[in-house]
Amino acid sequence: MPRLAGRRAGGQHRHARRRPARHRHGRAGDRAVKALAILAVLLATPGVAATPARPAAVAHDWSATVTRAPGGAYVLGNPTARVRVVEYASLTCSHCAAFAAEGLPALRADTIRRGLVSLELRHAVRDRADLAASLIARCAGPKGYFGRVEKIFAAQAQWLPRAAALDVDDADTPAARQAALLATASGAGLPAIVGLSPAAAAACIGNRAEQGALAAMTAEAWGTRKITGTPTFLINDRAVEGASWMTLSPQIAAALR
Question: Which of 93, 38, 116 is nearest to 233 (CA)?
């Protein structure tokens, strides 16, 4: 496996194109390989959201239902919803944070609540800070996962620069890489953002089952699906254009008709 070179957290925006802005990376494949390298070594050893309109009463409220998909991703809402939205996301992606602030609350309050739409969030890990944040979020389990994701995205402008400024040494041993991940999470302030003690944060970072789930999702995203950036959205297993709530919303509405 290639060794992950030290890098700063966060990504670069691709050159502008005549389509909605998307957090793109000219070397997405290289970044994915390097993110997977971290996981491989670890596993080798034992804006302001608009207020949505008040929805009508429904027979069953699906907005707090979270299940785990076969690939390891968490699904918010009715797992048999007629419209299934998948988001490939990175927790260090600013456009993903914008969608979490704008699109997720609107979906949860309306079509997810009514059981018409589900949202599956698949991690496409890009770097050490992303991996550390993803492990912190996922160790909450299904009940607390989306709440942690939203907190991490909401505070992204504060913790991501701190992570980028860290001088964390890379090493070849799994123990040293584990220590680097924990140092990144702690130095960025991620445990405090989600209310974790240092001991609990260390347990999250060292969770081998979640490391494996993130490795599988990352390989599927960049290697099998071959996404070119985050966020990337699917509606009923079909990739759609756009990376914002403004462009995604009418496509979901069309799928519901």
Answer: 93
